[in-house]
Design goal:
2 copies of one chain form a homodimer. By secondary structure, the first copy, chain A, is α/β, with parallel strands linked by helices. Chain A has 9 helices and 10 strands. The longest helix of chain A has 19 residues. The first copy, chain A, binds a DNA duplex through helix 3 and strand 2.
DNA sequence: TAGATTGTTAATCGATTAACAATC
DNA sequence: TAGATTGTTAATCGATTAACAATC
């Protein structure tokens, strides 16, 4: 789904944010160092794999001691490109959009929702999070002005493709699609789908196997 | 993170819901058959892999023709255990909770939010989706009465572990964690974390590589 | 029949893990 | 020094892909 960049395996890149989440939690608990063994417990990843993953980017630990949490947090953030601020455009000002705009975790990682759009005149002008909802017609101009690279789609599924087309032609490079619709994006745009239902279905498989799959 | 059930590779189980999503969209468009090549285009999965994935569960296609969409949808739903109704307990009646409860895609796959809980007395008694918000104290009783197996956590991160403990001891078998907190669950409970920020961070990596990673 | 596409094998590729020497 | 834990190699394991015979 994403063009293979350089030679870092995709699995490694997927796990880095998981490590980061655990490290931030550890730092929050006041810890200063952590071993790969402990990090493995917290994240469910094999300790050897954690060490191997990290060596793709350098050497961050001290033998006999472990990893300095602050250092590793900084390093991973730099690797991911999360060491500076990113502005997000949010398309769709419904319940989901409101939840996303109000989500503190975004700001903690340097993601700021600086523009919200909707095509419902009822919603235009209202405040969501820290910003006023604008009409979707203004999107190209605003995205260009703010040099926004990331868009989040929280619109009804029927509107997803149109919204994707719009943000793509406005110059957005990453789309987070929160609708169940399968949208197509041009080469060079990274699309990430997060349909909660797909994840539920996936997990469901294991439940059906685990017990007698009672029919309801 | 999940106990290895039988001999189906985890990757296969992860992709089935993706196929299902595409198939449902195709059915919605009025199509009746699809080739692995077309399904591969839609989902970004290699056609050979789609065919190989499906053979784990049987033989669903017709050589020279392709797959009957209706049949394949039914089959995948049955494989996943999504061919009957599942009740969900939702913990947290904020914006995110409201978005989840109001999400149509859930019902389309047989997931019904039949109980919503919050510990804020302000929210108890209000309606979300089709149900009245109850105090979290009632959770054990309600989950037991309704024989609920799946819980969705949409609470503040500080409250996540307590909420997880509560639903686990009430007998829930699958937890969908929408908070950034790393929660621990007992053996036998499947935990699925979906922190939107982690996904953003992951995607961000590729953006930083793609262009000159302008500092803002 | 000719064309298309599956089901399946066999080859490749990459990821995971165990093990251990290096070293804090 | 002794104990701990990393960084890294080497072995294993599994997933991906190409190719093609089977067959609709």
């Amino acid at each position: 789904m994403t063009g293979t960049q350089h030679d870092i395996p995709a699995g490694v890149v997927e796990r880095l944010p998981v490590y980061l989440g655990a490290l931030i939690q550890l730092r929050h608990e006041g810890r200063t160092t952590v071993s790969s063994a402990r990090l493995g417990e917290l994240t469910g990843v094999n300790p050897a794999q954690i060490r191997r993953d990290l060596t793709h980017f350098g050497s961050f630990g001290k033998r006999g001691v472990g990893y300095d949490i602050a250092l590793l947090v900084d390093s991973i953030q730099r690797i991911l490109g999360a060491d500076h601020v990113h502005r997000l455009a949010l398309v769709g000002a419904g319940n989901l959009g409101s939840a996303i705009a109000g989500y503190d975790g975004l700001r903690q990682h340097g993601f700021y929702v600086t523009a919200v759009f909707d095509n419902d005149p009822q919603k235009v002008g209202k405040r969501i999070g820290d910003v006023i909802v604008r009409h979707v017609d203004e999107l190209p101009q605003v995205v260009a002005d703010q040099n926004i690279r990331i868009a989040v789609l929280a619109v009804p599924p029927e509107a997803a493709q149109a919204a994707a087309d719009l943000v793509c032609s406005a110059g957005v490079r990453i789309i987070l699609n929160y609708t169940p619709a399968l949208v197509h994006v041009p080469e060079g745009v990274t699309l990430h789908n997060t349909d909660p239902v797909l994840e539920l279905l996936h997990t469901l498989y294991y439940l059906s196997r685990a017990d007698g799959s009672e029919r309801v």
